[in-house]
């Protein structure tokens, strides 16, 4: 792997100290058992309850549009830049293109992230592009490319869906023509528990199957929705889930996505009103 | 085969060649000496070295009087004046369309060599030039005739007959140009209820029967609303799969062979014609019937 | 390849009529051809041909140290190479996006220990494990790549023979592996639950599987469903365009149903494979 020598890379084979502390993998099972027993999540939310979200636009003043989103400890900043001609393309394309870059800040996760995009970040970029493509009116800017950059400042779970929601807001803030407002929610599944908008610990719980006698289902689902058109613009899942459970999760996520729409709408309206007041 | 997914092992692959009834001609490979006598003239696919005539492509020898040329076994289409071709518009330019006809260079269809709506003897006005994309746009399929072959090998086409023009709903099949047998007509209305255009360039168009009474071809009108009825659709798809079966066994394509293959295929369902054994079966049966026809 | 509107209409109406242009029904698959053990230098290999799509998969094994986060697990890595042999579009970095999408989908599909148990690849807890390099080479690209790749990968893993380790000696920090010299003595992987992917393509308001090139052209977007055993291990969307939630569930159902059939067909054919039956690429 190419190493950037201008940056501090740290030794290659370091081990996070947290492996030696009490909260290691074994205890994830215990944590899950405890959550199951008490029927309450660690932050005393209901299982189907989304975290409180905080959004604002214009976080990056030099970008054409930008948005900042906070789901408690998950913090993502997204900026959108002016359309520019698609680079390195000889032929003319009737439709515009989106370029998405999803990046974890080096300090955002438990383990330090490198500056080069890794496979997970590339995958997330592709999903983000897929989600946003069907909401932007691409035919309105032929042969142009709009760049969307998302940086996760702090990862406490559901950062991909947070980035997608924020990117939709940032695109709207930038005045890019869009069909609809896009909202996105993540869900973690472990056996018969659905964690809507999971935190990082809850995500880790759902990442691996817990030793159990019978039903060992686990996984993470991300769904992005265009609200007024009632269209799923992106759906991504991994793990090991039965079809029935997946269908159930789709309907729950659908509902949660709908709940987020007014928040995003309200903020956009607020932004416009504020600008109008400033101008008069 | 429906509801069953076929995965076969490569060791059970079948040999798709059909025993022919004629002697195989000698095949020359590049660099091979064709003749050392120098009274012959150098044709396509050959070159001269040290007084010897050598092949530059792999293929069979063709001789016309003193002219020796090597016809490659597999090549792109080499156009000849009067050929019927099926092509796809790739570009709309000033006063002409660029057409992909599976030949080495793009072919051109001049605005002056098409029949515009509203009669044959109309002058091409400036409006027509602006309207060109409305007649034919990128991606559209046309049938046409080769009007002229330029010195670099590129073709100029014309559609100045009611038989030619924009193609409607149907299926395009691409085969090697050398598999298309040259015949008097390349437009066939098969009695089974479909018509085919065997383009000399290896593109075959299959569509519903064309009624000669209503002149649907030759214009620029497509009916996208019309749904092809199930039975005709089945016929079209069956012909498509039959042509692919014959192609797989490298058999010549013309109206009789396609019709025979169609008749032999009736014992299979259309989807079954994708199975290699069925395809071979049809090719062998067709070959037998053709031999019988020849001997009769 | 571009299609004109009339051709698209013909394809579309055919799909609506449950009679596609090659005569198949919506959930029919084209016949495929599979061959295992084609690369002699690899520990396991397979080649799959589905109409014009041709995929070659080879598995290489190396010794490695497990990740500190998961000391009991071995490693498996997928690498897809879209060579310019397939189509000139892949020249340079042209095929990179597609390659990343396929390899990432494979990685996530194999990530769950219920789909592929990487604990069996561990030799010594936290110290030594096998690492499987699954190299996927796209030789010819005629559409429906995800499905073809997943079947070929599964067959290659089925074919993989891991050297048998007789003994592990620990001497201070030195670890000595005693690998059996006998080539016949080897372990095979358990691939019963290895995921099989099915791409469900949406055309008009119907969903089809195993699209050919013309049908892929008419489609607005597709959903890749990876099924391991009777559970869904990964879902990934490709292409543009969005789906109605009802269509999404419908396509998941279709993909799931077909994947189970595909898996059955694959295990049936794998059980039929005899050693030393070679065909090679061109016969």
TrEMBL record, chain A:
GO CC annotation terms, alphabetical: cytoplasmic exosome (RNase complex); nuclear exosome (RNase complex); nucleolus
Gene Ontology MF terms: RNA binding
Keyword flag rRNA processing: yes
BP GO terms, sorted: nuclear mRNA surveillance; poly(A)-dependent snoRNA 3'-end processing; rRNA catabolic process; rRNA processing; U4 snRNA 3'-end processing
Key word rRNA processing present: yes
Start and end residues of each Exoribonuclease phosphorolytic domain: 49-177
Keyword annotations of the record: Cytoplasm, Exosome, Nucleus, RNA-binding, rRNA processing
One of the Pfam families matching this protein, by short name: RNase_PH
Location in or out of the cell: Cytoplasm; Nucleus
Record CDD domains: RNase_PH_MTR3
SUPFAM superfamilies according to UniProt: Ribonuclease PH domain 2-like (SSF55666), Ribosomal protein S5 domain 2-like (SSF54211)
InterPro entries: ExoRNase_PH_dom1, ExoRNase_PH_dom2_sf, PNPase/RNase_PH_dom_sf, Ribosomal_Su5_D2-typ_SF, RNase_PH
Similarity comment text for this entry: Belongs to the RNase PH family.
PANTHER family referenced in this protein's UniProt entry, alphabetically: EXOSOME COMPLEX COMPONENT, EXOSOME COMPLEX COMPONENT MTR3
Name of this protein: Exoribonuclease phosphorolytic domain-containing protein
UniProtKB/TrEMBL annotation, chain B:
Keywords tagged on the record: Exosome, Nucleus, RNA-binding, rRNA processing
Classification via Gene3D superfamilies: 2.40.50.100, Nucleic acid-binding proteins
Claim: Nucleus is one of the keywords in the record: yes
GO terms classed as biological process: CUT catabolic process; exonucleolytic trimming to generate mature 3'-end of 5.8S rRNA from tricistronic rRNA transcript (SSU-rRNA, 5.8S rRNA, LSU-rRNA); nuclear polyadenylation-dependent rRNA catabolic process; poly(A)-dependent snoRNA 3'-end processing; regulation of gene expression; TRAMP-dependent tRNA surveillance pathway; U4 snRNA 3'-end processing
SUPFAM superfamilies assigned to the protein according to its UniProt record, in alphabetical order: Eukaryotic type KH-domain (KH-domain type I), Nucleic acid-binding proteins, Ribosomal L27 protein-like
GO CC annotation: cytoplasmic exosome (RNase complex); nuclear exosome (RNase complex)
Molecular function per GO: RNA binding
Compartments reported by the entry: Nucleus
Sequence similarity: Belongs to the RRP4 family.
Protein name (database record): S1 motif domain-containing protein
Species, as recorded: Phyllotreta striolata
From TrEMBL, chain C:
GO biological process, one term: nuclear mRNA surveillance
Cellular component annotations (GO), alphabetically ordered: cytoplasmic exosome (RNase complex); nuclear exosome (RNase complex); nucleolus
Domain Exoribonuclease phosphorolytic: 29-163, 194-257
Top-level taxon of the source organism: Eukaryota
Classification via SUPFAM superfamilies: Ribonuclease PH domain 2-like, Ribosomal protein S5 domain 2-like
Alphabetized InterPro entries for the sequence: ExoRNase_PH_dom1, ExoRNase_PH_dom2, ExoRNase_PH_dom2_sf, Exosome_comp_Rrp42_subfam, PNPase/RNase_PH_dom_sf, Ribosomal_Su5_D2-typ_SF
Entry keyword set: Cytoplasm, Exosome
One function term, GO molecular function aspect: mRNA 3'-UTR AU-rich region binding
CDD domains reported for this sequence: RNase_PH_RRP42 (cd11367)
Protein's cellular compartments: Cytoplasm; Nucleus, Nucleolus
Keyword Transport: no
Any Pfam family: RNase_PH
Transmembrane segments: none
UniProt main location, coarse: cytoplasm
Protein family according to the UniProt entry: Belongs to the RNase PH family.
Name of the protein described by the UniProt record: Ribosomal RNA-processing protein 42
Organism: Phyllotreta striolata (Striped flea beetle)
